[in-house]
Fold each of these.
Amino acid sequence: MFSSFMTNAWIVGTLVALLAGATGFFVVLRGSSFAAHAVPNGAFAGAAGATLVGVAPLWGLVSFAVVAALGIGASRRHRSDVATAMALVLMLALGAAFLSLSAAYEPQVQALLFGEILGVASSSITTVVLIGLVCAAALAVMFRPLIFNAAAPDLSAARGLNPTLLEMGFMLTLALGSALTVPVVGALLSFSLTVGPPAAARLLTRRPSTALVGSMALSVMTLWVSIALSYATNLPVGFFVGTLSAILYIAVRAATQLSARRA
Amino acid sequence: MHWLFEPGLWSNVAVRTGMGVGVAVAVVSALVGLFTVMRSQSFAGHALADVAMAGGAGAGVLGVSPLAGFVLGSLAGAGAMEAIGVERVRQRDVATGVVLGAATGLSALFLYLITLNSSSTGSTQLILFGSLFSVSNSTFLVVLALSVLVVVALASLGRPLLFASLSPDAAKARGVAVSRVTLSFTLLVAVTVGLSSIVIGAVLSTALLIGPPAAALRLGRRMSTTLFVASMLGVVAVLLGVVLSYDSFYWWSSHRALPVSFCVVVLIVFELLLVSLYRAMSRRRERVVV
């Protein structure tokens, strides 16, 4: 399980889970799960497009995710869920068209959608670390404003915090993060890590900083267990990431409700 | 009209069946979608589509009809969402997300099992992105029957649903069983999403459900007109999409057609943009007059 070909999977997986846990904390706090679901699909279309044109997938991943994120962020004010839905389906449809034009093989398609953690090359670790650091720095800078804005939107606006700018900044971080997660856990599943573990952590504690750390820890644990189970059973990692995240949240919710009733 | 319709379009049985299914599904999606958009439930609608995808993939593993998988899957998803869904909106966001994540995990498993067990390729793309041209005649009849059923149910639910969507508190005070109306509506969305999954694929069924109604609502007319406009926008997008996809086979020397779903989605987005543009321009004109 810890043999040489698995080393990259463990390293990159851990980094991705840390980042997903951190961004996920803010996603749950702001109630923007739908956007967090839509942006990685932009990255999926980008990767498919890059394969078709023949450039490095990373460029496609980053550029499409950023376009999707800015599109959703710009329309945040009015009927944001419709705009998010349309951005999402447009990106998925583009991805489908790119894939069918380039006649990709079935496993390639599945890898983009559901991830291929064993396919991580050592050369990509540096990129992952670099992008991860940029995202972490951005989240650190926005930590207080994001919490202020989520807790008291009107008050924070009165104090001179620009909500549109904040939204854009957060969406951009989300986009960069997705560009990094999509090749590892896939477009459809990078979302699971961003919602399940952070939502569970928020139930366990009310302190923002503790919840943030807890969310990252739960996310890393979910991914580690998933990789181990996937190695043992030969089933796709994505299956375990998706179902374990959901089980984690449901279990924590049941436990907190039980203890609240007892008290 | 030869420049628009490439040779053989109308004599092709698969194309004709596909258009029939497409029109039925476009109308049902537009009607149900109008309420989905008004209730700001796009995320739930999309999550149901991803659960439908898990159902479709599961049906592929078991070797039963994908339509049954799509519809039963999304019905089960609706049940799960109602079970863990709670009152507060932000919590609902998380509940939807958790179900969505679990469903995608299951899809990953089922699609992997399909590729392991069968020699046929392309089932992933078929389930996710659909193929209108591969709908059989017997499926067509089932789709038609279910569509009629959904429209009848929606019509009988119509007034209380509209009331409960616009002002839940007032509706509750007037004695409308809001939670029962909401549950029935969620089940209707689930069946609709299952039906449209077979036409443009599970993950894209959101386009038919949300796009045309959102465009029709932007034009802001009476309810009956809006319902009609939404259906028409959906039908036009599907029919034009089929034609474009059929024609695109002749566009490149490589003879690789664009997927129908892609054409339909692009047309829907185009309609929405056109309507938004029209509204922005007419609003500016009003401002000048005032």
Amino acid sequence: MNRTIITVVGKDAVGIIAKVCTYLAENQANILDISQTIVQEYFNMMMIVDLSKVGKSFEVLAGELADIGLSMGVQVKCQREEIFDKMHRI
Amino acid sequence: MINIYEVLETNQMIEQENLDVRTITMGISLLDCADADVDVLCRKIYDKITRLAKDLVKTGEDISKEYGIPIVNKRVSITPISLVGGAACHTPEDYVKVAHALDRAAKEVGINFLGGYSAVVSKGMTRSDELLIRSIPQALAETERICSSVNVGSTKTGINMDAVRLMGEIVLETARRTKEKDSLGCAKLVVLCNAPDDNPFMAGAFHGVSEPDAVINVGVSGPGVVKHALSQIRGASFEVLCETIKRTAFKITRVGQLVAQEASRRLGVPFGIIDLSLAPTPAVGDSVAEILEEIGLERAGAPGTTAALALLNDQVKKGGVMASSYVGGLSGAFIPVSEDQGMIDAVECGALTLEKLEAMTCVCSVGLDMIAIPGDTPATTISGIIADEAAIGMVNQKTTAVRIIPVIGKTVGDTVEFGGLLGYAPVMPVNAFGCDAFVGRVGRIPAPIHSFKN
């Protein structure tokens, strides 16, 4: 298992989740969990994704997701899960 | 499972509160490079550093991308060079040759600073130590990436006053040799007492003789995160204040621990320590002085500053210690003037003086750091300032340091621009009364009574 957190932050718009999910499906990334909230009128989404079957390198995947975000005016970030685990769990 | 609020909190720390890992520093032992021929010595040193550290910068960048956390500096610290060059270097110029080899190696591996152009002379100087010390002004003037440090005292040995006297002259000579660049050479030269062997932060980093062949040490940062957390609890009790600092320090340090373990694994070099330091940068919102203001001071330097800083320093350690398996280095709040916008503002409005800074160094790491003073300050006065700081370190069994910049051609009221992370500083006044006869005495100050613990 190669768990990564993908966050999408920005102004809400139609099709954001669809576009990110389509890209992940095309690349064999399995979505384990998905949640979203609105903070100060900003759309915040978090996905926990398993990248073990993804052929591309982490860097390429993160770059392409960031570009998809840019095309819709939102920020898409990919980070390995450990940074959050380490910080918030003892 | 991690929830969205935790993820957002982490990312807010990184994006809005300047959370970063300040440095991954690879310590490299050069003891096995010793040779009687200075050219062979230089070649061996260059080869070893470029071999061990060749992937350091790339690895740091990869980790940074994968975890989404900035890693500001990738650096190297080496065995104090006076221990390596003794057989080969017969003049200060020989040591300068070694400095150039180190500078080339640093450039080749892509790091911005390499620390360890150093001597540990807390009790006495060998001939090699003295040659190295005398080569420092030229070495710092002719190189770009080399940092130098001299340890002049310790709780166990007392203070080597001959080295203190010499370092006053060396600091001033370094300032003269780099006067076209606002005496920038002095920003890369630090005089220490009780210097740790595993400090990852420049300019005082070196790889002590108690260390293995190579090691990864990591320095964390995050004054902005602490300040933000404290801004949420204004007016709360000391208990709540301390608890908030501890929790925040824990979170910051855990990120450092993760980065250190990853870097160690990927580079195949053992993990040494995490340095739990609050290291400010000139960026607004990344300031230790602003934390002190958030604790309740009108400005850093106001009465209460030393107590607030003591509290901050202690809580950072208490929170950080549990977050890391090994803690070392300097581990405390840094209070450099030029690298901290809140400190600069405090000096400029008259709230913070050199004397108050000295008091603050009694309760935090590290010492009088990045302070610009008039260029006409006598060498003996600089030695006096060094002796005072060393005495604070010796008696309190802590690391202290002096990194002051006598800016040639400038005086009180002027401002000095060092650029980048080194920031800018107003020139501060120095007590004009002399200490020539005190500094002129030869020998050393004996170790304090409480150092005899055996």
